[in-house]
Specification:
The complex is a heterodimer. By secondary structure, chain A is an alpha/beta fold. Chain A is built from twelve helices and 26 strands. The relative contact order of chain A is 0.12. By secondary structure, chain B is an all-alpha fold. Helix content of chain B is 63%, strand content 0%. The chains are: A alpha/beta, B mainly alpha. The structure holds flavin-adenine dinucleotide.
Chain lengths: 449, 82
Amino acid sequence: MAQDNLRIVIIGGGAGGISAASTAKAVAPDASITLFTEYEDVAYSPCGIPFVHGREIPDFKNLFLQTSEHYAEIGIDLQLQTKVTGIDLENRAVSVGSEPFGWDRLVIATGFEYDEPDIPGINMDGIHYVKNIRRAMEFDKVLDQIKKIVVVSATPIGIEMAGNLAHRGLETHLIDEGAWLMSEVADPDIMEPVRESLEEMGAKIHFGTGVLEFKGSNGKVNTVVTSSGEIDCDAVVVAASKKPNNHLSRDAGIELGATGGIIVDDHMRTSAKDVFASGDCTEIIHGVTDIPIQGLSGSHAYSQGRVAGANAAGDDRSYDPVYIPWGMVGGKVQIGGVSLGETLHKALGIPHLVAFATGISRARYYPGVSRIRVKLIADPETHRIMGAQMSGGEGIKERADFLAFVIKRGVTLEDLAWMENVYSPPIGALMEPIALAAQAGLAKLAKRN
Amino acid sequence: MGFGHWLRENAEKYLLEAADDQMISQYPEACAKPYRKKGVIPFFWRKIFVPVYLIIPWDVRRKIILYTSYPGGKRPRWKKYD
Ligand SMILES: Cc1cc2nc3c(=O)[nH]c(=O)nc-3n(C[C@H](O)[C@H](O)[C@H](O)COP(=O)(O)OP(=O)(O)OC[C@H]3O[C@@H](n4cnc5c(N)ncnc54)[C@H](O)[C@@H]3O)c2cc1C
């Protein structure tokens, strides 16, 4: 039930905060809604930044989805470049400068920050993190002047940056401690085509390599000292893992979980009354393992923001546990998956069966056909699907979305092995690669019994 | 950093390392030798924590993870699909 003269304050202007503000306004048009962000802008897609650097997208202007004036028109008070320095739960106020600013409901959407590695020289000039669009615009001008760049960490952002910087024509080195690309989430067989593609594009990949120090002159980086030698460079991009930005929440006494994210329930309520949270600053329950996880994606932040904003405005919406369909382009290869891959099943020690197949994306005679490797991970007892990883040329995103639903609804290998699918030469093959993988899984089980 | 956070961060790192080793032997053609820090602390996690963790059955382990995930083991309400 919407309350009269309700004051809703939102901290954060990323996907989690801006969707909370818009949804709250739609649910309670008379509420006063104020959004604070320390950045200069709202409503742009940071996800597109690597592709502007790579000149796949012509201009940063293309990444803005909405103007600030639009929010004023719909009655949202945007306070740009305004840092909130404290949350006072008892007096229901946030501190902005020296002034308290009162709220009846608060949504915290402070997002993520990079887990800055503890390496000597990390604060030198020329070491860049990809996040804020204004900093990216400045960095893009730097990229025009330089020749050699090092990207540290083969995370998804690191891979996107490496591919795009190589595409732009820079000598690009990608350094990672792991044994393969994205080894914290993806499997080596899935990532192998990405490695090949990045190398074809000219990127130099240094696996199993630790960064020991950044060195430079006049405070500006020019060398990366690694466990396998020194690499000269004109700039460095650090694409470390994301961690929740929760200084304000911790100081206010809002409960944080073991991931460091704000603990929320399925209504995005925090431990404090009338305080909601959304996006990368929270931790969310994983649908298969029940374990809380953090550092999800922009699409999760956006939908959590809608739930938090609606509930802050008096609605009664819930958010489901997540199965995390994901997909991206690495080099020129599409990769993706859902839930946990084989590596993470092994890491957690969850009993699992792995089934593979390589199929094709359209009729084998149709121009543009590409190979798709599908790997399904199933419960060996119930045969229910628990995860998947894929690489190929097209249709990975749609398969990941479909498989997320499959897992949520408890679908088994048998169901997938006999599924119906679209066959149309330009867009779909007679034999769906997912069904082929499920059939391979059943054959493996039959051999075991 | 609270105990739960500390435990989770280290457990994640070293369990993933152990899983990586299995994946490296399974897919040698797609893997390189990873870079690993040495020392007493990594030795404890690698040689004691990981083997002990992996002999506990998954269902029991999941309960331990859930209990250590929240202050006082109090889990907020979330829908469960079955
Ligand atoms: C290069 C890049 C590529 C990405 N690619 C994808 C992709 O392809 N797909 C995808 O789904 N996701 C992608 N992501 C991830 C996605 O951008 C994040 O998951 C998403 O931005 C999280 O949204 P958020 O609102 O939780 O936090 P953020 O976007 O981090 O926003 C946090 C907001 O909080 C504000 N803030 C923080 N503290 C304060 C304070 N004290 N006072 C005032 N304001 C404050 C900041 O100003 C900011 O507006 C990418 C991210 C990057 C950087």
